[in-house]
Amino acid sequence: MNRTARLYALVEELRAAAPRLLTVATLATRLEVSTRTVQRDLQALMEAGVPVRTTPGRGGGWSIDPAMTLPPIRFTPEEASALALTLATAEGAHARTAFQKIAAVMNGAALAAAGELAARIVALPSRTDAGVRAAVDHAVATNTALRLTYTDASGRESDRVVEPAGLLTANGRWYLIAWCRTRRAGRGFRLDRIIAAATTRDHAQSHDLTELLRGSTAADATRPATLDPLNAAVAPSTSSGRLTGREGATAPEA
């Protein structure tokens, strides 16, 4: 998460809790950064004129003027429940702040329906390191090469530099679909088998996700219908990459 996104996330955390106070330690945990970073960011917000304030002493913390609100959005109970269910499967600080924005504008029946469903959703801890997921998401979003250490299904460890094409989800697992510069072919990497991942400044070539999946066990994968409004606004890219071989196969693994 870059600094601009983090500052916005801080405001969202404080706004969602208002008028309650949040400690620096709590904010640091939620945003997955150090307390020093949070303190520095809160000071920057104050200097920029954002109405955040601190209450010193035991039981103190940081808060924001609850008058800071979002534009009104009306959800039906069914829509609110669907959003709660979808975001429950998402991970990281971005997903949390996204749901805070949605919850902040819900009221009445919609809020009650989402709250009732949320009370019946539980999740096991993710096996994917938060830093790995953040690096993967950043590489996919910015189309930059990614350096990773990966353990395949046989337990063999290798270092790769890959060019991300997209993400695939199957049976509760996430896969990074990418062009592997080491193997010079398309590959699928299970996120929970990526030991380490680091973004680079190297711009990646464009690789079409459908082409990389062609001929693989995930060739019939389709884009989620819920994303159709966004997909319609994005022109598909073209490339000649193809997913080959058994290593890092995109099929769900035992």
Automatic annotation (TrEMBL):
Organism name: Lentzea alba
- What protein am I looking at? YafY family transcriptional regulator
- List every stretch annotated Disordered: 223-254
Using the record's annotation, list all stretches that form the Helix-turn-helix type domain: 6-59
Q: Where are the transmembrane segments?
A: none
**Can you give the residue ranges of the WYL domain?**
134-196
